[in-house]
Amino acid sequence: MNRIFQKFLQSVIDLSSVRARCCEDNTHDIDMNPDAEAPIPEWKVYFDGNFWKPSGKDRAGTEIRLDKQFEWAGHHWIIPAAYSCNKGLVLDFCMCTLAEDIREFMKKWDLTPENDSCLNFTQEQQLQIDLDNPLCLDIIPCLKLNGTTMQASHSCSVVFNPCLPDEINNEPEAKWVLKHYELDTSYGWMIFRAAFL
Hints:
The protein has two domains: 1-36, no CATH class; 38-196, no CATH class. The strands form two sheets. The protein has a five-stranded antiparallel β-sheet with strand order 1-2-3-7-6. The chain has a two-stranded antiparallel ribbon with strand order 4-5. It has helices spanning 3-12, 99-108, 123-132, 172-181, and strands at 62-72, 75-84, 89-97, 143-145, 148-150, 152-160, 188-196. It is built from four helices and seven strands, in the order αβββααβββαβ. The chain is α+β, with helices and mostly antiparallel strands. It is globular and about 45 Å long. Helix content is 20%, strand content 27%.
């Protein structure tokens, strides 16, 4: 059901007469309260999955904690874990960005909740915005394992921005990654997940 429609229904219907007994204000129920936090699912990484649809046909990969850190392309990076799956290996690359760099970028381009549509920018400006965005970096990782170069299969990424105003939320999947890896929420993060055959 459309969340805007849900909010409208909640504003015009007196739910007290319904006597919802589970939790009187339904703050825990995302269907009854669109502002409720989505419950954190059990952490599982699948070779064919991604951040939004993590399940796959095979069983979940076995987490191998790495906690490797390095500096590259002007950013601090962490590879917290690899996942050994039936089809191959999955790695999460976490790129850390200072909140001040994000604020400067948002100020430079006047990015606000009212002005974040691509319709407000020319195609050239959109390209420059992508280049300037400190949370956006296209990478093509290469993995050598025991002397053998593994072939990249597919990838996806999710971003956490600590500078978003209260009325705009980060994707819950980004928050779940930060929580699982215990990453500092005062920084911005681009989490890039890559699968290798």
